[in-house]
Amino acid sequence: MDKFLTFTIVGLTLAAIYAIIASGLVLTYTTTGIFNFAHGAAGMLAAFTYWQLRYDWGWSAPIALFVVLLVLAPLFGVLLETVIMRGLQGTTETVKLVVSISLLLFMIGLAQLIWRPGVSRPMPSFFEGRTPIDLGPTTITWHQAITIAVAIAVAIGLRIFLTRARIGIAMRAAVDDRSLTMLNGARPNRVSMLAWALGTSLAALGGILIAPGPGLEAASLSLLIVSAYAAAVFGRLRSLPMTFVGAIVVGLAEGYLAGYLPQNQYLTGFRIASPAIILFIVLLVLPNPRLRGRMTRSREFFPMPTITGGLGFALTLVVAAVMLATTLSDADLITYGRVFPIGIVALSLVPLAGFAGQISLCQLSFAGIGAIVMAHLGAGGDPLALVWAVLIAAAVGAVVALPALRLSGIYLALGTAAFAVILDRWVFNLPRFEVFGLFEVNLFAGGSVAVDPIRAFGTEFDDPASQMIIAAVAFALVALLVVWIRRGRLGRRLLAMKDSEAACATLGLNLLRTKLTVFALSAGIAGLGGALYATQLTSVQPGNFELVQSLQVFALTVVGGIGAVGGALFAAVSLYAFLPLLTTLWPATVRWVGLLPGATGIGLGRNPNGAVHEIRQGFLPLLAARAVLTVMCVAVTGAYVLRLLDFIDNWTFVVLLIACPVIATIAAGLAKPRAVEVAAGHGAELHDVPVEWRGIDRPWTEADAEELDRRLGLSEVELRGVG
């Protein structure tokens, strides 16, 4: 009985912290419609700041708490809402999620920049030296008692604020109907600003209360509140009373697991992953949400790719890989060669999230499955292991998708994130085990596992150059597959489902089969990328496929352009080419580069079409000016020949590779000012798109209006009169 009461108190203490954090998350979501994935990171920054003021600078606890909770945290929340979140109106759920994920990555990088990782920063609990409070059969520490009391006070305070205070009632009204609230004289922007200030303060309070347990470590502390996400989902991200009930359920479950779960090598990771398991179960138990119908038009636009453009992109990519493989050193090839396998993992997101609108945060987990298959079935370099990696990853993706298919939007994102955490913290760390005595499963063997290089046609591709070329060819083929899907019947079905699931169901489209198909396809592509990634690493471990890295790939793919194959290449180049190159050129930026992935994604709300769209627009004059394009290709070829003959070094070659397209684009723009119009579809080159699809597959133009008038036999005189 004493043990039961002890772990009940532990569970209630955790429940109190989760309730505080989750209530702030629900408050911001209900008033703005944005699920703040960086909510835990805000609490993490507050915990670090409190430690800095209280223990490093020696401030008293009341003053440090006042400054953090009532000054810095509210101001930070107001800054987030005003500068970032307000600009997300008219964007899709994916863009909103990516901006909040980018905030998470940016805050983790900021914390690691200010407070150097690996340094011990002990943070004692409140009144740690005092004698615990005697409850008879057990005791409770002052920190636990304060935490529970604060949670009760927060619950009562929020109840009074939202039902009695005028501004609280305005918050609830803004949730129900923002436009009607404005007609009645309320100011929704001010309401949202206050909600973010209050929500950030609650996150800061929860971060300070939970930090003494796990300690101050940026990434782990930011993701530690997965349990708070489960509590918020328990209340359907709207009901604060049900959120507190969910926090109690989750907290007690964790407390009892800590006290009564048998201690063995198979269940050690289960206890660590239990919050994610609870979140996944809560998502599945929730009532099925209604089918989505598009209520507002998105500002996103991804043009239909052409066969010629896809072939040109694939060929250029392979040629670039050959140039790199024959000019870079082995050390550089090991560093930059990871662009292509990670690019394949990013490509798996294009049909899933870009075409179908299904958000997945566990693609790197499927890549980990592909790596495991390559390690165990690719002994001796058997190339058939690549096929097995695709098939097994696709099968796992289908199995995971079956229970998750009833979810959509943020619920699906949370479900896939929970699956990734379960694999990271538990499944990937399992020792060797048997399944019903039928066969044996050995994943990472409790550590790392070696991967043999591919052997085909009597040749072993064990050098970095050949591995880069193989990965580049695979990326090019998968990119052509994605282009073919986008132009085919499946692509049209996926786009229709993204636009309105309700309309597709009304017209008889089998949503279950369509979602299952795209999930399996996406997981298979990610498995192929993971298998090729494993051959380059020569040995893999669970740390290669963590959730934070998966979030980086997802965020940067959306930043690049989630609806285009170029967006996947943008993500891979950013992570495994640009950042390493930056640290090589300026070693002093090593601690700063962690801010770049997050900072890049934060600005996505201003341009939801992605960076690739802007890059393509910039190169349109060059694509239309064939003579200038030919001269540029000749110049690049000449620079490559000079490099092979050692007349120039690698740095000079890189400068020439960058300078040639830039100079050629400027020259093409000066030579043919109308090249952009022709390449963009204002001329006759893109009139092969049916009239009824113009404005959907590409922007509507005046030339399209004139052609439509001609086909209908109308004229401006007939429509508007002679005047």
- Portion in strands: under 5%
Q: What's the multimeric state?
A: single chain
Number of helices: 32
Q: What is the count of structural domains?
A: 3
Summarize the biggest pleated sheet: 2 strands, antiparallel
Give the averaged pLDDT, no decimals. 81
Order of strands in the sheet with most strands? 1-2
Uncertain runs: 291-297, 674-687
Helix content range: 55-70%
Secondary structure: number of strands: 8
How many angstroms does the end-to-end distance come to? 93 Å
Radius of gyration based on Cα positions: 28 Å
Which class do the helix and strand fractions yield? mainly alpha
- Name the shape in a single word: globular
What's the SSE blueprint?
Elements: H1 2-32, H2 39-56, H3 61-84, H4 93-114, E1 133-134, E2 139-140, H5 142-164, H6 166-176, H7 178-183, H8 188-210, H9 218-223, H10 226-234, H11 240-260, H12 268-285, H13 307-327, H14 330-336, H15 339-347, H16 349-355, H17 363-377, H18 384-404, H19 409-425, E3 433-435, E4 439-441, E5 449-450, E6 455-456, E7 459-460, H20 464-487, H21 489-499, H22 501-506, H23 511-537, E8 539-540, H24 547-561, H25 565-585, H26 596-602, H27 611-624, H28 626-644, H29 650-671, H30 675-680, H31 702-712, H32 716-720
Antiparallel strand pairs: 1-2, 3-4, 5-8, 6-7
